[in-house]
Amino acid sequence: MSKSYDNQINMRDDPDRVANALRTMPTDPARQRRNDPGDPDKCPVWGLHKVYTDSALQQKLAEGCRSALLGALIAKTIGRKMLEEQALFRARAKPYEDDPGEVRRTIDAGCDERGPLPKRPCKRFVMSWERSIVSG
Q: Is 1-94 a domain of CATH 1.10.240.10?
């Protein structure tokens, strides 16, 4: 997964984009066919399972991969758990996406409280942040 290839999963991505990124995510290169055994440690999806999947299911998935009983698409069902966690990020970011001026007002208030010294770095941050909002 790479930002250069535009297939990264961002914390605020919509569910369709996450599902598409997972569906097209590469798996263990040794598994050219469905019935080829694999090695979970060589599969990029396995790193996500280490974060989002409980240990009992991890063990079943690892055995299924090594014995070729489970296909890679089944292992990619991790998306539901990821989306549950991402929903919190999307919900917390929504008010600021709806009103980007609120972020600017908060930063300006913080700069005003600190006095003249940090105003310049604060202004640079605001300008950088605004560019990132515009570019997506």
A: yes
